[in-house]
What we know:
CATH architecture: 3-Layer(aba) Sandwich
Number of helices: 3
Number of domains: 1
Largest sheet: 2 strands, antiparallel
CATH topology: SRF-like
CATH superfamily: Transcription factor, MADS-box
Radius of gyration: 16 Å
CATH class: Alpha Beta
Strand order of the largest sheet: 1-2
Helix content: 55-70%
Strand content: 5-15%
Order of helices and strands: HEEHH
Number of strands: 2
Amino acid sequence: MVRGKTQMKRIENPTSRQVTFSKRRNGLLKKAFELSVLCDAEVALIVFSPRGKLYEFASARKIRPEKTAKTIFPRVAIELPSKQSHYFHKEISCETGKY
């Protein structure tokens, strides 16, 4: 059985959107882990949920997610509306213990 192509547009139903986000986030984290193991690559992944919750993966001890997030955050914040930027800053602060 062949699966149809998924249209790339926003999912309007909030419940469906959250379920899809969770499934795709888990798949993305799994792929990051597989890439690090199979290719012996150092992989860092940072994902923010629509509500600003931080999810992270780092394949090596040299990569410290809290420092990676703090490094990337200023670049991301420039492109986001101030309300979203505030949520991201708050989440990073909570994760690093500096709130």
